[in-house]
Model the fold of this input.
Amino acid sequence: MNILLNYAKALRIYSKLYLNTFNSFQISIKNGRKVKLFDPITMDIIMKFVYIFTIVALCFVSFHPAYSSDVNILHKIDVFISGKDGYHTFRIPALIKTTQGTLIAFAEGRVNGMDDFGNIDIVLKRSLDNGKSWQQLQLVQDAGNWQYGNPCPIVDQNSGRVFLLFCGSHNSEQSIIAGEGTRDIYMSYSDNDGLSWSDRQNISAMVKKENWRWYATGPCSGIQIRSGKYKGRLVAPANHSYHDEADEWEFRTHSLFSDDQGVTWQIGASSEAGGNESQIAEVTDDLLIQDVRMQTHRKGLRAVRFSHDGGLTWSSIMHDENRPCPKCQGSIISILSHDDNKMNRLIVSNPAGGGRTGMALRLSTDGSKSWKEKLVIEPGPSAYSDLTLIENNHIGCLFEMGAISPYEKITFVTVPLDLLGDEKVINHIK
Done:
């Protein structure tokens, strides 16, 4: 359809150019007399060239997603559709690729409505063909009329085990912040690529401090450190509400990590006030980046902080002037560099079209100091997302989107790395 529309547009442009330009070039005033500048045959050749150039240019715009909002070249498939499979709404996507090559898409299945609190389950779907098709929905965690949510899966690349951190509560976020009820943190795992899961374990005593009330893991995937001094460590993003003695409170982001394959977990340093949902990626040996949604003190931008000790301590939060973002979660992943002297490539996703619209991807080759031109994969309503690297130099993005609301469905899209400006594409997962 795009090509036909642009072909018609080209014909209109050509007609106007031909008539206007032909007439203007045919005559000129010289000493009060009209003279011909070009003969009709030469003029016809010139205008045919203009016509062909216009067609080629418009077709390129039509088919290249870096220049078009239609991005039909990208392979998209709806994974969770609100109103289907017994759920009113699906939200909060998380995405991983297992050591066996299975893609697992997680989400919250909200039974009765769109609200963040209520009867909410954790569900998943699996893909065995890199996201071209998805199997039937599986129920992972069900709290009855209460909620389990904020799925944060992590793949242990050594054992193949998939860990799932998540939260549960019998009270809303507002009630918990006010001191009514509590928010617990759980862990489960799968040793068969998500087909079945262990009994959930309450790990709140290890990962939650007394003056924290609200708590959320992820929401998105965690990582296993792939190189350097802390190789093999599992690291998860999380956030909480911090309450002082005067009962003043602020959101802060933090990290969790485990050095014994999930048996025990430790808490990394909290951010300054305002940090909220986040994701963590490996920049290079012994350097992690945490990409942060700023709930307050936000400036309309994403923020970052860095760790040189595997997520135990972190630098101060810095706003990223190059990446505008509303109050919304975003994703960041890294692609390993084969060159020991170079940083890993970082890829981020977040809505960047004004409010929760315009899901955009960006690539950095210098540790987030600069970013290449954004690639808009969905110009319309869009919100939360998660990224992963899949085979054949492509990444996968699982994100919320819709025609009117960003919460109509959760869609998977495959994006070639070269569309992000990656001059040296790497197909390498450890």
Summary: Residues 2-26 form the longest helix (25 residues).
